[in-house]
Every structure is written in structure tokens, then in C-alpha cells.
Design goal:
Belongs to the methyltransferase superfamily. METTL18 family. By secondary structure, the chain is α/β, with parallel strands linked by helices. Helices cover 34% and strands 23% of the residues. α9 packs parallel to α10.
């Protein structure tokens, strides 16, 4: 078992984490698309959440998002007994509870760390917020893909911004993660919380009971519990339709998504996904295939080095310029756009495709 400083945990503080050694043969998960209705059905009756404060380069100092508590996801798995029936279409994999309890954060080909929040996803939020202020970058009228989204903090931030704008967004957001369980337990609940904490849910909240237990304050700074009732689900889907926001969710390997892509994206994001050199060609191929032909924004946020597993920024750049990528028409030029040199180095890179 490898050990390296990957830097996560509930408060997103650096800590020493572990990854199970990569087996010689890995059976990759096939592509699957999950509907919004399926994910709504998979929600528990109550979601416990806590604030996640993200530093920003702007005068606003930080942005706070509500994020589902990891212990709450674990409680859901136990209380529903979902590990007992792996054949159920809406059931998380039988190993989901093991992922939450295991000392290792990564099991290549089985679980890729998406249940926890990693530092570079917060870096990406800060950079995107800065672009919005400095270049008037708009998230409306865009197709956006987050590869290996996990807790999906960057995309949840973008979605929260769209909910706060309260105008037609005409935006398509695609959330991709290797594990179905991650999308059900963490990604989608975080999206529901972003909606509830925004002005987009004002009509629903105005019609709700004054009982705080049924109607918690729409303030992401406060920890709390959100009841998931039928009227909330209906109001959420109505908001998506009103704001012209389309949400797409897919699970499976990067190779499988590449073969199923039928649209191009204006913004492609990924963070903490370059830790294994063996997976870099598949990731690069997917990023290239997903990007629109005309001036796409493709951002990769990562640690400079992932100790113990061989991945890092240098390895990613080398793979990007390799002959195999050139032959596939997937080579590109890396432009570093943000860097942190204190402690474990981190970077955000913009990819300009050749």
C-alpha cells in the first residue's frame, strides 16, 4: 500500500493518505448515465450539511457553500441497508460503505477518492471566481463538463452562481465520476444544497412551514439538516426548467465516456485526477475530445507531485506531449495560470490544444 500526502479530509486540511497499489489488470467500470429523477429517488429523507468556506482572490474574501457531511452519507448507507442488495438499480455499490471506512483513499479501478473534498478543487473555485471578475467570464449559455467531479465543488460553485443570477442560464452541466455511489451520495446532494441556499429556492421556502426543523435557514454559513420532501423535489426540478439548466450525470471510466461523447463543451474542468501515470493517456484523450473546437476553457488543477504513486504536473505535461498523444491528435500546450509554492505545491494549468 502506497502512502502519500494527498491533502484532504472533512475540513480540507493536509494529511497523509493512502492508496492501494495498482493491480496489473484493472477491470474498468463501464459507462452509465444517471437521470435526475433517479438521483432524486436516491436521496435520503434528511441531509445533514456543514459550511465549506473557500478563499477567493476577489474583494469578497471567500465564498461559502453548503456541503453534505461525510458521516451523513455513511449513516444513509447503514440505515437503508443498501449494501444488502447490489442488484438494485438505485443502489450504491456494495463496497461504498467500505470506501467510507477504509484507511485508503484510492482503490484503482474500484474507487477513485470522490467521496471526499480535495484541496485543488478549492483552488479551481478561486481561479474561476477570479476569471469571472477579471474577464467577465459568464457561465450562462455554456456547456460545462467536470471530469472526475467527486464532491463537485467547482461545478457546484458555478451552479450556485447560476441559481443566484435568477435569469435564464441556458446552461448544460455534465458531472462525471467513476463511481455511481459518489454521484448518489455526495455530488447530487451538494447540488440540492446549492439550490436551496440560493434565491432560486425562495418561492419554495416562502410556501414552506415556519418550523425550522422543516424549513432551515437558507444560509450556507450555518450547519443544519435539510428535509427532502416531495415538494422540495418538485420545486428543484421546476427551477431547473425555469432557468433552462440541464444537468447530466455519468459514471464509469474515462475511456468509456470518451466513446459516448456526442457533444463538445465550452468549459472542461478537472482537479486531483493526474495522480496515476497509467491513467494519463485516457484522461488527456477525454479532455481533448470533450473540448469545443473554438477557444474552449480547459483547466487542470493538481498537486505538483503525488508522493508514492508517480503522478504529478511534470508527468502530465510529458504525457501531453508524448508521441501517442500526438498520433491521436491530443497533444497540447500547458499554460500555468495559478500556483501555490508553500507546503505541497499546487498548480492550475490551462490546456491549449494543438
Amino acid at each position: 500500500m502506497f502512502q502519500f500526502d494527498f491533502g484532504i479530509e472533512e475540513d480540507v486540511e493536509p494529511s497523509t493518505q493512502t492508496v492501494v497499489a495498482v493491480p496489473e489488470v484493472v477491470q474498468l467500470e463501464p459507462f452509465a448515465e444517471l437521470s435526475v429523477s433517479r438521483l432524486l429517488d436516491a436521496l435520503p429523507p434528511l441531509i445533514s450539511y456543514s459550511p465549506l468556506s473557500i478563499p477567493l482572490p476577489s474583494d469578497r474574501k471567500n465564498v461559502t457553500l453548503a456541503r453534505r457531511d461525510l458521516f451523513d452519507a455513511r449513516f444513509q448507507l447503514i440505515s437503508e441497508g443498501r449494501d444488502d442488495d447490489p442488484s438494485s438499480e438505485t443502489t450504491a455499490p456494495t463496497s461504498a460503505l467500505e470506501f467510507l471506512d477504509a484507511p485508503s483513499d484510492l482503490v484503482p479501478g474500484v474507487y477513485e477518492g470522490g467521496l471526499k473534498t480535495w484541496e485543488c478543487s478549492l483552488d479551481l473555485v478561486g481561479y474561476l471566481d477570479g476569471l469571472k471578475d477579471s474577464t467577465n467570464l459568464s457561465f450562462s449559455n455554456k456547456r460545462i463538463l467536470e471530469v472526475g467531479c467527486g464532491t463537485a465543488i467547482p461545478s457546484v460553485y458555478l451552479l450556485y452562481s447560476l441559481f443566484c443570477a435568477e435569469s435564464k442560464a441556458n446552461t448544460n452541466l455534465h458531472f462525471q465520476d467513476y463511481n455511481v455511489s459518489v454521484l448518489e451520495l455526495i455530488t447530487f446532494p451538494n447540488i440540492i444544497l446549492a439550490w436551496y441556499m440560493s434565491p432560486a429556492s425562495a418561492e419554495y421556502r416562502a410556501a414552506a412551514s415556519d418550523d425550522p426543523a422543516e424549513h432551515p435557514p437558507a444560509d450556507p454559513i450555518l450547519a443544519g439538516e435539510l428535509p427532502i420532501i416531495p415538494s422540495l423535489k418538485s420545486a428543484f426540478t421546476a427551477s431547473l426548467a425555469k432557468l433552462a439548466i440541464t444537468l447530466v450525470f455519468s459514471s464509469g471510466s474515462w475511456e468509456s465516456l470518451t466513446t459516448h461523447l456526442d457533444v463538445k463543451y465550452d468549459i472542461v474542468l478537472t482537479s486531483e485526477t493526474i495522480y496515476r501515470t497509467q491513467a494519463l493517456p485516457a484522461l488527456i484523450h477525454l479532455l481533448r475530445q470533450a473540448c469545443a473546437d473554438s477557444n474552449p476553457l480547459c483547466l487542470v488543477a493538481a498537486k505538483v507531485l503525488y508522493f508514492g504513486v508517480g503522478g504529478g504536473v511534470s508527468e502530465f505535461i510529458e504525457a501531453l506531449k508524448s508521441k501517442i498523444m500526438v498520433d491521436k491528435g491530443c497533444s497540447g500546450r500547458v499554460e500555468p495560470v495559478w500556483e501555490r509554492k508553500v507546503g505541497v505545491g499546487r498548480k492550475i494549468m490551462r490546456i491549449e490544444w494543438e
